[in-house]
Amino acid sequence: MPTPTPRAIKFAFLAREQSEGVGAKVRRSVGTAKLRNFTPFLMLDHFNVDPSAGFPDHPHRGQETITYMLQGASDHEDFAGNKGTIYAGDLQFMTAGRGIMHAEMPVQDGKNIVGLQLWVDLPEDLKDCEPRYRDLRAAEIPTATTDDGKVTVKVISGRSLGVDSLKDLAYTPVWILEFVIQPGGSVTQELPQGWNAFAYTLEGVVSFTNGTDKPAQAVPPYHNVVFEQEGDLVCASVEEDAKEPARFFVIAGQPLDQEVVQYGPFVTTSREKVYQALVDFQTASNGFERAKNWESTIGKRIGRVN
């Protein structure tokens, strides 16, 4: 068998913080001019939301959203009567499919919510599926540790260090792995061949091997590191004399061979289908019937802290 080769770094860039509405700050990396439609990924937001803010009633069609709470707790509610709360360490996989209208709001405990939200495109033949949710609680996430104890990984989706994740969380095949590497630690992570992959750094400084013939690249927090599609694995390490561990995510997904035409929360494969999505939402039809005159309870909190 051929020797596995590390992926080279295509480029890396800082996800700059920007204001989003009132009371929300977002570091967006996927979905910016630097990294647009990195199939199957549409957007990655690292958000920090004031308890008086949030994301009141809004629609989606044609994509899946994966939300990972890093701090605080967030409520959700939709037009089908689904309600729930995710806490720090929990995830929610939401499939918009043919149409959904929902709200996502901070729990009213006076604390900001911090987390990541990843938008993943749906294969064209699944864009008209019924909307659904899959919650993954922190206690359910398998973890793995290297023999020396210097690397731990939460296997949210995919496989790492011989440990498999739970199955059937999203329709589009995606791996999401959260690593913490202590000073002096290193890890080699295999990835499915041909999948697109990137890393997002949260804490500390992590060095990624840059292919086979270039020096490793040290990356500080809040950067998106985009890897070349060629290669079998990603190698990451933290210097022995580092003052703190590094925390980062490795995310990979199966590319979709289809057009991406997006208008805000509607993701389709043609301009005509985007127009149709707008008409369907405005007329409460073809998947948006339950949006007519619907208002969430939690969306009314906007601008108010109890």
How would you concisely characterize the structure shown here?
This protein is mainly beta and 306 residues long.
Can you offer a commentary on this structure?
The protein has one helix at residues 271-282, and strands at residues 9-14, 17-19, 24-28, 41-49, 55-60, 63-71, 73-78, 83-87, 91-95, 100-106, 113-121, 132-136, 143-145, 151-157, 159-160, 163-164, 174-181, 186-190, 196-203, 206-210, 214-219, 223-227, 233-237, 246-253, 261-263, 266-268. The model has no long low-confidence stretch (mean pLDDT 93). The protein folds into two domains: 17-140 and 274-294, Jelly Rolls, CATH 2.60.120; 146-258, Jelly Rolls (Sandwich), CATH 2.60.120.10. The protein is globular and about 60 Å long. The strands form six sheets. The chain has a seven-stranded antiparallel β-sheet with strand order 1-22-19-24-17-14-13, with no helix packed on it. The protein has a seven-stranded antiparallel β-sheet with strand order 2-3-4-11-6-9-12, with no helix packed on it. A four-stranded antiparallel β-sheet has the order 5-10-7-8, with no helix packed on it. It is mostly beta strands and 306 residues long.
Question: What secondary-structure arrangement, pairings included, does this model have?
Answer:
Blueprint: E1 9-14, E2 17-19, E3 24-28, E4 41-49, E5 55-60, E6 63-71, E7 73-78, E8 83-87, E9 91-95, E10 100-106, E11 113-121, E12 132-136, E13 143-145, E14 151-157, E15 159-160, E16 163-164, E17 174-181, E18 186-190, E19 196-203, E20 206-210, E21 214-219, E22 223-227, E23 233-237, E24 246-253, E25 261-263, E26 266-268, H1 271-282
Antiparallel strand pairs: 1-22, 2-3, 3-4, 4-11, 5-10, 6-9, 6-11, 7-8, 7-10, 9-12, 13-14, 14-17, 15-16, 17-24, 18-23, 19-22, 19-24, 20-21, 20-23, 25-26
